[in-house]
Amino acid sequence: MNRLIYVTKSNGNRELFEETKLIESLRAAGGSKEAIEEIVDKVEGEIQDGMHTSLIYTRAFDLLRSSNLHHAAARYSLRRALADLGPNGYPFEKFVAEIFKAWGYETATDMTVLGHCVGHEVDVVAWKEDRLDMVEAKFHNEFGLKSDLKVALYVKARFEDLTGQKFAFGGRERTLSKGWLITNTKFTNEAIKYAQCSGLHLIGWNYPHSGNLHQLIEEFSLYPFTILASVDGQTRRNLFDNGVVLCRDLVKYPGYLEDAGVRGVKADKIVNEARMMCKI
């Protein structure tokens, strides 16, 4: 692209459009070289100064999907799929619990535990062997919202009140090993700086560099079913009500769809799309 174009990010800031960012996101989604070149050419021909990045994303996604690379299109929409684990955030807590299960933990969600001073509602409690971890799952339904220093401070303070206390999980008493703050978006630089200094463990969309949320989803095939184009809004709500969050659960237990009121050809379509997503 020879002309300089500025685009508007989800947080309202303007930045210079960089072709390489679009190329890398399409490549990470699994798009072929030929498809990427074609999509980038079309998108760049349509970009106007000040255009919102969400519109650029939507256009690139539509083109990727129309190129018959449905699996790649689904991967490209992963970040948006995480934002759809709402609006109340409870599905995101269940999703975070699945990360710890992949690490070999047993888990419980939405627990109330007693600290030294007061009781605390903990989104995810995870335990194995001689470990006990607790998690604050901070959900945002907009990409531009970040977990800032204020959030990190209050989460760390809560875990400090829980440190040294004994909790009965897994049939025995345990003390807190690690406290985590996990978000589906990003952290501010100040939040990261404080967490590194204070010992608060963070996971966000792109933090840390190794072992971030995006990478963990890919590593363990923890794709939320909200990534599936064949799941409509009512089906989504019904599945959430039944505690379902992952694509692979729909493949392994198709009965979840029947419980959600989905049968026949529609159910088969959802299961097939979920199977392609998870490579099952």
Helix content estimate: 40-55%
How many helices? The count is 13
The fraction of residues assigned to DSSP E strands is 15-25%
Distance between the termini: 40 Å
CATH level-1 class of the largest domain:
Alpha Beta
CATH topology of the largest domain: Trna Endonuclease, Chain: A, domain 1
Number of strands: 11
Q: Give the strand order of the largest sheet, numbering strands 1, 2, ... along the chain.
A: 3-4-5-9-11
- From the helix content, strand content and strand pairing, which structural class follows? alpha/beta
Largest sheet features: 5 strands, mixed
Give the CA-based shape: globular
State mean pLDDT (0 to 100 scale): 90
Named at the architecture level, the CATH assignment of the largest domain is: 3-Layer(aba) Sandwich
User: Any idea what the radius of gyration is?
Assistant: 20 Å
Number of domains: 3
List the helices and strands in order. Answer: EEHHHHHHEEEEHEEEEHEHHHHH
Low-confidence stretches: none
